[in-house]
Amino acid sequence: MIWTNQYAPQTTKELVGDIRSIMQLQDFVGNYKNQKKKALLIYGPTGSGKTEAVYALAKEQNLEIVELNASDIRKKDYILEIIGNAICQESLFGNSKIILIDEIDGLSGMKDRGGASALASLIAKSSFPIIMTANDPWQKKLSGLRKKSKTLEFAALSYLEISKVLKRIAEKENISVSEDILKGIANRAGGDIRSAINDFQLIAFGRKEILKEHLEEIGERGKEEEIHNLLRVIFKSKDTELILQTFDKTNLNFDEIKIWIEENLPKEYSGVELKDAFDSFSKADVFKGRIIRRQHWRFLVYQKYFMSVGVAIAKRESKKGFVNYEQSKRILKMWIAKMKYGKKKSICEKIANNCHTSYKKSMKEIFPHAQLFLKQEKDYLDLSEEEFDWLH
Amino acid sequence: MWIEKYRPKTFSEIKGQKKIVARVKAFVDSQNLPHLMFAGPAGVGKTTLSLIVARELFGEDWHHNFLELNASDERGIDVIRHKVKDFARTKSIRDVPFKVIYLDECDSLTTEAQQALRRTMEKYSATCRFILSCNYSSKIIDPIQSRCTMFRFQPLSQEDITELVNGISEKEGLKITEEAIQILYSLSNGDARKVENVLQSCSVISKDINEDLIYEIVSAARPKEIIKVLELSLDGQFIQARKLLLDTMLKYGLSGIDIIKQIQSESLHLNLEEKTKAQMIEKCGEIEFRMIEGSDEFIQLEALIASFISLK
């Protein structure tokens, strides 16, 4: 079980952070009828407990939560349908409910403009509290919504508050760990309680006692953020200088960056843009091949340029909106296939040995035809049990 | 495997290539063999004839006096040279005038490797004879060609294939229609190995073989997914196209070059304007070039299918 879920606060009393913010949230929901502004926009950095606070409150007061996140809000019709219905209908069992729209700043500008204004028009009519969360509420596209909403800030949590939560978890999990170490974990998380808990679970995995040296295992945190940041710069801007600077600042090797860009490129680009971007990306790979073959490292400059700036300038219009960048599964898939492929390889080697032909030829010309009858040739080819099983 | 079970063991069993067989037999009868070069497409009897030469020359101990190497598998010419050296040095088992080295798929050797091979041939020609085989003699450097007696093998004729199929059917208890044989011939382009493999695959499913079964077996050996990849990418569905492409490559163990070859040949048959097809083919060529120069085949293939998006 993931600790961030398992130890999610169940009541508002368990919440950490600024007590005044939490009280304001309670007041907004509790006195919803008397609120002038019918929506609440909670903002604050990642992992400051915005969503958790809403859920804790809902559990405590037995409220139903109708949740939407940015990726749901694409079209005006959709908003009207989902939220419009939720606003009018009485909740099941007669309970009251909260409409929660998480990560509202993930609305992408052009496409979702209809969505944002549809939402704004619904707010005034709502008889249930509408709560939105955002990292950055000052974006232009949110200005309409912001005017109709009460804003509430959740500050980043201090390392002391975070370490208190970690200590509580350690006690429940029966893990022996010093307070210094917990503070160390909390410190590294930079105010993000979710990542602190995740880090803690990572180093506590399979251990009953945590020592100082285990802290080193969480050095990786921030890597993902680093790459996400680089991807955003490449995909969203055309600023050559900024792109190259950000590229140089990341501590990742080119191959890692390459697969991240490759995987996520088609999520941001389409049509001619995608074609041009991949063309540039393919040129970068040609330079990589030349570096490998000739050990001429100056080509690195070109590889870097084509895989970053080249991709960036392929876009026709600037990209707005939130895209959830994902890690590529290609390398993993290739590795798994290689393991499987090993059997085919050894079968083809046996064919080659027995049939006066090359391994390559048996792979290409014989195997595809012979796949059907190879099972009958177990003895002739002296196939092992694993090879035999692999055939079907 | 039938391709071995029905491999001819004597000169007279070989299908087709009558003139070549007669001349090679004459060399063997006189116990005097020049270096030979067998050029021709796959499955027409090059390896088979070489094995028969060894058998006829050396009798039961032919294994000891015959070295079979494959230029496309042996890693580099150095490995070939070492093996030739070791083989040529040891004393022959019987009192034979020379040993025979059969080097298959010589056209996969680079020009430099062929130069090295030429020197090796010269060095050991007192004790060894070489039989080189290749698909295209034009890929073999002149100095080697001029040292060999060249034989150009032809694809088997329809009569040869019919004779072959009927012979096997009789021994394996198969019933095969005349139309099926006709189809088998035209799909195989006179390649006996392919004919035998397809026939054995068919026999797993049924002893009664008709044209439908042949078609089914032959098309099953060819991934249909590539056409789907092309359709998806022309349709602008890049992410799906890319996923299917990767899965197909991994499932069949295909290389980037294999895929380009297929994309290029499938593009010719797509229902598109000729001009569009020409653009696709041009891009295939460009990407194939980049693939040779580059480091990551899949990136190049992605660039290829991405270029199809805006064509339609």
Written account of the structure:
The complex is a heterodimer of chains A (392) and B (312). With 392 residues, chain A is an alpha/beta fold. Chain A has 4 domains: 3-153, Rossmann fold; 159-221, Helicase, Ruva Protein, domain 3; 224-312; 330-390, no CATH class. Chain A is 55% helix and 8% strand. Chain A contains 19 helices and 7 strands. Chain A has helices spanning 3-6, 19-30, 50-61, 76-88, 113-123, 143-148, 159-173, 179-188, 193-204, 223-236, 240-249, 254-268, 271-294, 300-307, 309-312, 330-354, 359-370, 378-381, 385-390, and strands at residues 39-43, 64-69, 97-102, 130-134, 149-153, 176-177, 209-210. In chain A, α7 (159-173) crosses α8 (179-188) and α16 crosses α17. Chain B has helices spanning 2-5, 18-29, 46-58, 76-89, 111-124, 142-147, 158-172, 178-188, 192-205, 211-220, 225-234, 238-252, 256-267, 274-293, 297-309, and strands at 36-39, 66-70, 99-104, 128-134, 149-152, 175-176, 208-209. In chain B, α8 packs parallel to α10 (211-220), α9 packs across α10 (211-220) and α13 (256-267) packs parallel to α15 (297-309). In chain B, strands 2-3-4-1-5 form a 5-stranded parallel sheet, sandwiched between helices. Chain B folds into 3 domains: 2-152, Rossmann fold (3-Layer(aba) Sandwich), CATH 3.40.50; 158-220, Helicase, Ruva Protein, domain 3, CATH 1.10.8; 225-309, Zinc Finger, Delta Prime, domain 3, CATH 1.20.272. Chain B is an alpha/beta fold and 312 residues long. Chain B is globular and about 70 Å long. Chain B contains 15 helices and 7 strands. Helix content of chain B is 59%, strand content 10%. Chains A and B meet through α12, α13, α16 and α17 of A and α9, α10, α12, α14 and α15 of B.
